[in-house]
Amino acid sequence: MLSPKLFDHTILKADAAEADVRKICDEAKEYDFMSVCVNSYYTAFVAQQLKDTDVKVCSVIGFPLGQMSTAAKVAETKDVVANGADEVDMVINVAALKDQKYDFVREEIAAVKEACQGRLLKVILETCLLTKEEIVKACELAEAVGADYVKTSTGFSTGGATTQDVALMRATVGDRLGVKASGGIRDTKTAEAMVAAGASRIGASATISILDLK
Questions:
Q1: Which of 39, 43, 56, 101 is the most buried (most CB within 10 A)?
Q2: Is 214 one of the catalytic residues?
Q3: Which residues does 100 contact at the CB level (< 8 Å), separation at least 6?
Q4: Which helix (H) or strand (E) is 110 found in, with range?
Q5: Active-site annotation holder among 8, 86, 89, 165
Q6: Is 89 a catalytic residue?
Q7: Which residue in 137, 82, 70, 59 sits closest to 110, CA to CA?
């Protein structure tokens, strides 16, 4: 049985209107999901909507490409923290990782972690663009600087979460970090498979249907 607290109820599409985001917040409150995950523009709005509840505000950083400067990611992180974010999901610089610029990737994650000011940090790897070796390396870099979770995907690239990638991430970080599966998870069977593979959080926009709540 999947717990509602496994889920970051997510709305990240470019044309998400305020009414759409309010609906997501209402659903999260009604069904007691772990968080509502939004782009930084909506952080303050969601924080207001979720005030006096235990549903967390989750904001994405450097989304969805991760190709912003470190300074831009840090500034965006500071902004969402000031506007009420409880959790931050940052996209790594995939090109830098693939170029084996490991010091850069590690230092960028560390800079965002510092800007989180104690908020929970999830590091989005975009696994569909990485080899198995690169997934392992990215997990190691994230753990080395104190990230709380590694996360599979943005849902905006060439593929989403797979059970194989989730299992590899879990094998790499053990029980020291959380593993968030996101991207393309739209039904109960898929969500259950991700949990069985080692996911401790699920990011989904189809949370209501996954949990068969209506």
A1: 43
A2: no
A3: none
A4: helix 102-115
A5: 89
A6: yes
A7: 70
